[in-house]
């Protein structure tokens, strides 16, 4: 298993960092969609599996279980397929249709929950189902992206180190949050290298991660209906919340300005950056980096579908009127 895993390692990380023209800041984008299966989440998937295999916690007949309707599930499914071990993702109706098809093609079995939890999301229901499966299936292993310290380690050693080594100085890093793995690992590694860097967490309105009230959310990847344990490790200076309608604007704006075809969290960070620096004046242009955790193609039915966007805008007008 270890040899097969090492061969996959060549496709994890070392993603491009590109400089973008901007009127007031020195802006860089880290293109995480260049990773295997198109997202940042292959980094923790790879690292968590590798460390559990090396320590003997995962063997050839282990069944891997994870709550993920998105990139982490796709990454785990791909790696488990390559390793020849069983994988069961627990998904929910917010999943984009192409991801569901892909998971069904790559996984041993797919579990889909249908009931919203008390916060209006599906996460808590998904986690309940994971716990049931762990009780039902012998030799099962929950990779647990929300609580596994190797989610932190993957980003501390991988993405965090790549960023730390790419800059001679850095003033701001904008990082979208869901499980909290990326921001915890990257923030700690960047603060080690650049003690004055400001870490800006980017979240969706309606996510409860930073203590704001829950609201129905439709764009996967960013935000959460619970506060993940792993976030305890993060060092965060500012939090910016973005409405989903503005996430869409950010995605289109980024494509128009820089030809980067990003997923939801990418557009969310790009929108957050425009707002954050709008009225700020600096003597010296600050160096700012943001992440592009996945690309736009998986969002062809949602963010990049004009009919879906119109429905989202209509829903948000109704909400703000009521
Ligand atoms: N952006 C995208 C597209 C993601 O899939 C995720 C993970 N769900 C994130 C951002 C947030 O990453 P993390 O889980 O490490 O907080």
TrEMBL record:
Cofactor: pyridoxal 5'-phosphate
Organism listed in the record: Tumebacillus permanentifrigoris
Taxonomic superkingdom: Bacteria
Name listed for the protein in its UniProt record: Cysteine synthase A
One annotated GO molecular function: transferase activity
GO biological process, one term: alpha-amino acid metabolic process
Record-linked Gene3D superfamilies: 3.40.50.1100
Pfam families cross-referenced by the UniProt entry: PALP
């Amino acid at each position: 298993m270890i040899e097969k895993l090492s061969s996959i390692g060549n496709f994890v990380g070392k993603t491009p960092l590109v400089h973008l023209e901007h009127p007031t800041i020195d802006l860089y984008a880290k293109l995480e969609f260049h990773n295997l299966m198109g997202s940042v989440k292959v980094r923790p998937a790879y690292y968590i599996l590798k460390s559990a295999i090396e320590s003997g916690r995962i063997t050839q007949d282990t069944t891997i279980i994870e709550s993920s309707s998105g990139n982490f599930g796709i990454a785990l499914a791909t790696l488990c397929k390559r390793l020849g071990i069983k994988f069961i993702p627990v998904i929910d109706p917010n999943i984009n249709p192409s991801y569901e098809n892909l998971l069904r093609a790559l996984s041993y079995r797919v579990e889909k929950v249908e009931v919203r939890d008390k916060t209006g999301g599906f996460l808590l229901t998904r986690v309940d189902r994971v716990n049931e499966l762990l009780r039902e299936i012998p030799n099962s292993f929950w990779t647990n992206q929300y609580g596994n310290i190797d989610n932190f380690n993957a980003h501390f050693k991988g993405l965090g180190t790549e960023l730390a080594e790419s800059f001679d100085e850095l003033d701001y890093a904008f990082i979208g949050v869901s499980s909290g793995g990326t921001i915890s690992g990257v923030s700690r590694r960047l603060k080690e290298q650049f003690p004055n860097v400001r870490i800006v967490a980017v979240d969706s309105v309606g996510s409860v991660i930073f203590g704001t009230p829950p609201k129905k959310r439709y764009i996967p990847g960013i935000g959460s209906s619970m506060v993940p344990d792993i976030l305890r490790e993060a060092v965060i200076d500012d939090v910016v919340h973005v409405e989903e309608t503005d996430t869409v604007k950010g995605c289109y704006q980024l494509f128009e300005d820089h030809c980067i075809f990003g997923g939801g969290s990418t557009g969310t960070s790009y929108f957050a950056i425009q707002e954050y620096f709008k009225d700020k004046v600096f003597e010296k242009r600050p160096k700012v980096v943001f992440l592009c955790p996945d690309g736009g193609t998986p969002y062809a039915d949602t963010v990049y579908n004009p009919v879906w966007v119109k429905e989202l805008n209509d829903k948000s007008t109704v909400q703000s009127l009521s």
